[in-house]
Structure formats: structure tokens, C-alpha cells
């Protein structure tokens, strides 16, 4: 069975074709970074307009790369939320129209379920149950995943998401959008010194599994204001900020694994592309003699492959969309129906 996946929730148009027998056949991504860079962040109207331009050529390319025709498809999956409404509508309309023309189902997919399942695209996928750490631009969550589609939220950020904290801190350091990867590069290439500052580890002593990153950003602002604007200061701040986020994530993951009596961790979402954070979590899990799974870096950030995969699972469970086009800018992950076939 073949499922086409379309991702258009934010600033990247992603398209992929997933085969339930052979796995991922082809995928392609178009990033809007140059469009939004001059504004320092995503401009929703420009995002929607660019998705419109890119989505059809990307579908053609992916079908060609996969060696299939559109008539071979069994379903079209699309990101139905959460995300920017104008951006979501482009993918949803395209998927719904294509599915109607081909007389096949359209499958609405939850963007965060896509992220969470992305490590299953790898050669050694995690087995259920596990604890998932979802760290993206809009969400930071710890989730108990008993089975595919069964998501119990154990904790989340009470203020900024981890990716948002990266982006805002990067802005304070004068780095261009998109901040997260730029901040990582500054810490690494600028040989940032982990001992130069000690930033707080908010909520680390609390017994719950929630996160908070807003205070960390304020601590960075104080140091930026004191700094003499030397490049080395900035690299040091970037490094120490990254260390603080990594510590908070490790600490709460460990707590979540203890509370659930599990020793398998799955880490997904844009921030899981960060090498320092991957390494810290790997070290922590090695000490616990547990296993940690990530997606390859290009599938940590937004992509069509994760939507095609999640769409395939929902399709096989018989969960197909109606003829209506519905998108959900806000959509709690815990409200999804179970994925039992
Ligand atoms: O998952 P994602 O692509 O989109 C959302 O669903 O939000 O995540 C984007 C977020 C952004 O905040 C971006 O700065 C962050 O992930 N990010 C990173 C890295 N790559 C992306 N943060 C830190 N280090 C990175 N290498
Ligand atoms: Zn995302």
C-alpha cells in the first residue's frame, strides 16, 4: 500500500511516499528560510503563499523519484494541525482535492504524532512501550506511549517550548532566523566554554515532569546586557545555554523513565536535531543501560516522511477523513483515538 504524505504546517513544504512493504520510497522538502529570514521569524501569510507554489511540483518530483504514478496511491495523508491555519489549509486542500480526483481516502494527521513516530523511519526503530520527549518550536512534552496512538502526557512546558527558547536566545545573541541551528553552530564553531557562565536549570528540583524555559532566556538576556559584545562571549553564552537546556531535558526524561518504570526513550521534534542535546541524552541513557532513539537529523525537523508514515498507520486503522476540509491550529495530542487496527 502506498501513502503520499504532505506537510505544510509552518515554514517547510514536505512531501513523501511511504510503502507499507518497502518503507520510505522518496521524500522532498522545500524550506522557506530565505523568505522569512529578513523578518526574523515566520510570516504566516507568506508561508501559505509559498506552500501553494511548491506543493504540486514537489508531489510530481516525489512520485517520479519513487517510480510511481499518482494512480498507484492508496491514500493521501496531510498535516491537519497544529500549525498556522493558512499554511495548513494549503496542504489540506491539496490532499483533499487529490484524494477526491483519485477516489481514495484523505487522512488527516496530527503534526506532533508525525514527529513522535519519525524515529520509526530508521533501520532500528524503537519498540513499544516507551517514553517520548517531543521538543519542537511550539511544544515540549514528555509522553508515555504504551502503543502507537496511545499518548499520555506526563509533563510539558509551562511557558516557552524548547525550540522557542533556542530561537529567542539566538535573537538575543544577534543570530538570524532560524535561531536553533544557528545557536548550535555558534557554540560549536566558536568553541564556547561550558564553564564561562552558570545558567539556571528551571524546575529541575520540582517533582513534576513539567519544563520552564522563560527564566533561562531572561538569564541569558542579563549576561548579553553585561557582555562587551565579544564574539567569544556570545559563543560562551550559546554553549552554556545549550548545556542548561540539555540538563533540564536529561533530568526530566530520567524522572519520567523512573516514574513509568521504563528504560526506552524516543526523542523527536526539531530540537532533537541538536548534536549536544543528542549526546547528553545518549550519555544519560548509557548510564541507565537503557536505549534512546532519534530520527535522522533531517527527519527531526518538519518533513513529509513522518506525515506519510503516521498517515499509513491511521489509514490501516481505518481512520480516514471525511469529504470536509478541516484543519486544527490547536489540537491536543491526547485527544487522538487509539491506533488499534
Ligand atoms: O519540529 P520543528 O521543525 O517544527 C515545529 O513543529 O515546531 O521544530 C523547529 C524548532 C525551531 O525552534 C528550531 O530552532 C529548533 O526546532 N531547531 C533546533 C535545531 N534545529 C531545529 N534547535 C536547536 N538545535 C538545532 N540544531
Ligand atoms: Zn514540527
TrEMBL record:
<dbReference type="GO" id="GO:0005506">
    <property type="term" value="F:iron ion binding"/>
</dbReference>
<protein>
    <recommendedName>
        <fullName>tRNA N6-adenosine threonylcarbamoyltransferase</fullName>
        <ecNumber>2.3.1.234</ecNumber>
    </recommendedName>
</protein>
<feature type="binding site">
    <location>
        <position position="184"/>
    </location>
    <ligand>
        <name>substrate</name>
    </ligand>
</feature>
<feature type="domain" description="Gcp-like">
    <location>
        <begin position="24"/>
        <end position="308"/>
    </location>
</feature>
<dbReference type="GO" id="GO:0005737">
    <property type="term" value="C:cytoplasm"/>
</dbReference>
<comment type="similarity">
    <text>Belongs to the KAE1 / TsaD family.</text>
</comment>
<dbReference type="InterPro" id="IPR022450">
    <property type="entry name" value="TsaD"/>
</dbReference>
<dbReference type="InterPro" id="IPR017861">
    <property type="entry name" value="KAE1/TsaD"/>
</dbReference>
<dbReference type="Pfam" id="PF00814">
    <property type="entry name" value="TsaD"/>
</dbReference>
<comment type="function">
    <text>Required for the formation of a threonylcarbamoyl group on adenosine at position 37 (t(6)A37) in tRNAs that read codons beginning with adenine. Is involved in the transfer of the threonylcarbamoyl moiety of threonylcarbamoyl-AMP (TC-AMP) to the N6 group of A37, together with TsaE and TsaB. TsaD likely plays a direct catalytic role in this reaction.</text>
</comment>
<dbReference type="GO" id="GO:0061711">
    <property type="term" value="F:tRNA N(6)-L-threonylcarbamoyladenine synthase activity"/>
</dbReference>
<dbReference type="InterPro" id="IPR017860">
    <property type="entry name" value="Peptidase_M22_CS"/>
</dbReference>
<keyword id="KW-0819">tRNA processing</keyword>
<keyword id="KW-0963">Cytoplasm</keyword>
<feature type="binding site">
    <location>
        <begin position="134"/>
        <end position="138"/>
    </location>
    <ligand>
        <name>substrate</name>
    </ligand>
</feature>
<dbReference type="GO" id="GO:0002949">
    <property type="term" value="P:tRNA threonylcarbamoyladenosine modification"/>
</dbReference>
<feature type="binding site">
    <location>
        <position position="115"/>
    </location>
    <ligand>
        <name>Fe cation</name>
    </ligand>
</feature>
<feature type="binding site">
    <location>
        <position position="180"/>
    </location>
    <ligand>
        <name>substrate</name>
    </ligand>
</feature>
<feature type="binding site">
    <location>
        <position position="302"/>
    </location>
    <ligand>
        <name>Fe cation</name>
    </ligand>
</feature>
<dbReference type="InterPro" id="IPR000905">
    <property type="entry name" value="Gcp-like_dom"/>
</dbReference>
<feature type="binding site">
    <location>
        <position position="167"/>
    </location>
    <ligand>
        <name>substrate</name>
    </ligand>
</feature>
<dbReference type="InterPro" id="IPR043129">
    <property type="entry name" value="ATPase_NBD"/>
</dbReference>
<keyword id="KW-0408">Iron</keyword>
<feature type="binding site">
    <location>
        <position position="111"/>
    </location>
    <ligand>
        <name>Fe cation</name>
    </ligand>
</feature>
<keyword id="KW-0808">Transferase</keyword>
<keyword id="KW-0012">Acyltransferase</keyword>
<feature type="binding site">
    <location>
        <position position="274"/>
    </location>
    <ligand>
        <name>substrate</name>
    </ligand>
</feature>
<keyword id="KW-0479">Metal-binding</keyword>
